[in-house]
Design brief:
There is one protein chain. By secondary structure, the chain is an alpha+beta fold. The protein has 2 helices and 2 strands, in the order E-H-E-H. A two-stranded parallel sheet has the order 1-2. Strand 1, helix 1 and strand 2 form a beta-alpha-beta unit.
Length: about 90
């Protein structure tokens, strides 16, 4: 799958107003179907990513049993394989 910089979704319109929940979900699904991923930008402080993702489907625990977590890059680890590293 080719990664496309077109799969970017701003959560605000050109006037800086937040998108409606309906438009956000619809556009998210369109981009996900077309590109396989969505990069959200201009995310308001009040946005709840867990609530948003729960509407996409049931969470599946990772190998540690956690269903929600943070991804934190570590300097110097770009060439190291880790079971939690996607796409390797």
């Amino acid at each position: 799958m080719a990664h496309s910089p077109l799969s970017i979704l701003s959560q605000v319109d050109f006037n800086g107003d937040p998108l409606t929940d309906e438009l956000l979900v619809k556009t998210f699904h369109q981009l996900m179907d077309e590109h396989g991923y969505v990069l959200m930008c201009n995310v308001p402080e009040k946005f709840d990513p867990v609530r948003f993702c729960r509407n996409l489907g049931r969470f599946v625990p990772n190998y540690t049993g956690a269903v929600v977590g943070d991804v934190r890059p570590e300097p110097g680890m770009d060439d190291v394989y880790h079971a939690g590293t996607p796409g390797r």
